Amino acid sequence: MQKQLCLLVLIISLLLGSCSESAISTASSHEVTTTLTLEKLTEVIVTTVPDVTETRSPVPEIPTLSSEDARSRLSNLLANNGMCKLPCFWGIDPGKSLYQEAVEILAPLANLSQFTHFENNIGAIDPDYVEGEFMIHANVRFLVDSKSNIVNQISFAARTLKKTDNGFADILDSPFFNKKLDYYLLPNILTEYGDPTTVMLSTMAKLPSSGVPGGFKILLLYPEKGILVNYTMQMQPSGEDIMGCPSNSHVEFELYPPGDADSFFDLLRPSGWTQIIQNTYKPLDEAASLSQEEFFRTFSQPTDECILTPADLWPVPD
Known about the structure:
alpha+beta, three-stranded antiparallel beta sheet
């Protein structure tokens, strides 16, 4: 048990250390995205640290690419998802890919990442794609079943930052992001994977005093496919409503082996998403004057259409 606690402390220390050394100066906006990732990863670690008698995944030595070659590869992976369909991610297929195979795909990108960790059935890398004044900051995490050595969960998040006098700041209206991550944006996801089983919304009754970008979220659930997709966009007060426009958004995924809906939600629970959904999201047809059929028809093609939801349905921020 003592060894398990030491492992947890070490991993959390590495994660927190990476945040403090980040070149991203907008701490409040960085916290909105990264803290959730760290909290979810920490909870998963607590529930999945194997017994000391079990065989741990070895740490393979994989050569890294030069920064230029890694940048080219990352651009290609973002453009076409590694030529595989979700829940497969960049060639890593949950329920099929071995730990070694996942590391061989991700570790060569280490020269682009301020934080990389591959050890004890956990993989983590945060590659940055920089072009001019813009940066796409990505977080990739995966977990491995300690007995089978097979990847059983992948998390991915990506957002755009723009260079400022003080470093980089989050932005949500970036044509650069839309061009580089077109594969993961709402129109392509709806076209490629069809009508989700569930569409949900989350927002607040008014803009928070912190002024942090974001605040309006659209969640897609494909339980049988093992896919959760969450889009974050800027909340915009509009009379008595709150408006969100999916054409300008950041994106994150939770990916699991495909199967039946019950197994999906069982796998999703340790990530923290189940509780987040229950506490902060509402079904689309309850939160907006828009049916799921209308949502699919409207947003399965590129559009500047937005979604309105009554402000009085949502909590007032602190």
